[in-house]
Amino acid sequence: MKDIAIIGLGVFGHELALQLEKKGSNVLAIDSDTDKIDRIKDHVTGAVVADVSDEIAMRELDIPKFDLVIFGIGSHFEHLVLGVTNLKRLGVKRIIARATTEIQQEILLKIGADEVVLPEKDTAIRLSEKIAIPNILDYMTLDEKVEIAEISIDKDLAGKSLKDLNLRKKFNVTALLLKREGVKVHVINSPDEKFMEKDQLVVVGTIEDIERFLQNKKVF
Fold first, then answer.
1. How do 146-152 and 115-117 pair as beta strands?
2. What pLDDT, on a 0 to 100 scale, did the predictor assign at position 126?
3. Largest CA distance in the chain
4. For residue range 75-111, what is the model confidence (pLDDT) as tens digits?
5. Closest CA relative to residue 70, chosen from 24, 104, 31, 40
6. Straight-line distance from the first to the last Cα atom of the chain, in angstroms, rounded to the nearest whole number
């Protein structure tokens, strides 16, 4: 359980608040727009109308007690900068901010944000990967280079085994799990287990190595 405050309830902030509450966090939603607070108040732990640039209001909400504060503000960059500055001065433990450009990201990190996300850029990158390499169903970044990816087994890979593919030696990619329709997800214990078309294979490696494997899958 975490106590999380989300400031700014545009599409990004609103959806993030709902999802974090569903996953067991105590979410306080904050926005200066009464209508946005009314739309979310019945779905989160708390919702208040307040202005993040008002340091007194933030102090009265006891913002420093929260484990994490997330800024969902996408526009009004000056407002966002002032908010991050105020919260750092109040001693907030961890701040994640949203930026729309890399320059904004750099500025927010310099003034004290612990992490800055670029959701539009991240979404574009993920979509481009799925379009360019259709076998990649989804992936998650573990650090700057390592990804966990879920790839689909098509007719080029069906009937092959890990032993046949030799992923680790040839591509520096490690297979973790196999998902098959009607069968429980399981760790691949035998390198001789044959894949079936429409299976889903969960692998770990750099996105470049995973793409290199998929681009060369017809050679097996």
1. unpaired
2. 66
3. 65
4. 788 889 999 999 999 999 999 999 988 899 999 999 9
5. 31
6. 47
> Which of 117, 132, 152 is the last residue in one of the domains?
117
24: containing domain: 3-117
CA 102 → CA 77, 118, 189, distances in Å? 13, 8, 43
Q: What is the CATH number of the domain that holds 28?
A: 3.40.50.720
Same domain, 36 and 78: yes
Burial (CB < 10 A; 0-12, 13-18, 19+), residue 44, is buried
Give the rounded distance of the alpha carbon of 42 from its chain centre.
Answer: 25
205 and 183 belong to one structural domain: yes
> Averaged over 108-122, what is the pLDDT?
88
17 and 80 within one domain: yes
pTM: predicted TM-score of the whole model, two decimal places: 0.64
pLDDT score, position 187: 87
Task: Copy the structure tokens of residue 2.
Answer: 């975490």
